[in-house]
Amino acid sequence: MYSVYPVHSVYPILRSSTFVPVWATSTQEALLLMKDSVQGERNDELFYDQLIRLAPDQGQADVITSIRNDEQKHNQMFRQMYREITGQEVTGVSNEVPEQADTYISGLQKAYQGELSAVEKYRKIWFGLPYGVYKDTLYGIILDEQKHAAKYNNLLIRNLAANR
After folding, report:
1. What integer is the mean pLDDT of 84-108?
2. Are 53 and 107 in contact (CB under 8 A)?
3. Distance in angstroms (rounded) separating the CA atoms of residues 73 and 5
4. Mean pLDDT of the chain
5. Phi, psi for residue 92 in degrees, rounded to 5
6. How far apart, in whole angstroms, are the C-alpha atoms of residue 142 and residue 163?
7. Band of the pLDDT at 13, cuts 50, 70, 90?
8. φ, ψ for residue 103 (rounded to 5)?
9. How far apart are CA 148 and CA 118, in angstroms?
10. Which of 5, 25, 59, 114 matches a 20 to 30 Å C-alpha distance to 150?
11. Predicted confidence band at 91 (pLDDT cuts at 50, 70, 90)?
12. What's the rounded Cα separation, in Å, for the pair 138 and 36?
């Protein structure tokens, strides 16, 4: 494997490397994770519907609604990428039961942790995809998930501060 470094007297232009990141995955592993992500995005959507109903005001419900809508788009993007790469549809439904929100605060905490977990999973998928539109699309999804985590963190802070 070769890497391109900036032209500088300390580094050669091409340098051989055997470094492999710990989260590197094969294309086959990435496709399995992508297929699993379709159900994960659907479960997130269902969970966020619960949070929307529990939200204490319309502003907070609107924030969660925007996140839920992004999850619906991610689901479709994962389905389309999987179909284009494999020539097959994502079929079947997992046995995974969507999370339940006991309270609004505990639901926000679960959502926050779920978004961070999605970033970790999607990073593994990213490393298994070929360069180009699929990798770029997944990078956009990863950025969305990070944005969602930040929004949930903000909602948590607002609601925890209000309960003091």
Report:
1. 87
2. no
3. 37
4. 89
5. 80, 160
6. 32
7. low
8. -135, 165
9. 11
10. 25
11. confident
12. 14
| Both structure tokens of 96 | 């995974």
Token pair, residue 164, equals 């003091």
Q: What's the pTM value of the predicted model, to 2 decimals?
A: 0.84
**Phi/psi of residue 2, nearest 5 degrees:** -125, 145
Strand partners, 2: 16
Write down the residue that tokens 């926050």 correspond to.
112
Contact 159, 56 (CB under 8 A): yes
The crossing angle, in degrees rounded to 10, of helices 133-162 and 104-128 is: 160
Say if strands 14-16 and 2-4 run parallel, antiparallel, or are unpaired: antiparallel
Gyration radius of the chain's alpha carbons: 19
Measured CA to CA, the distance from residue 34 to residue 37 in angstroms comes to 5
Q: What is the DSSP letter of 14?
A: E
* Token pair in block for residue 154: 């903000």
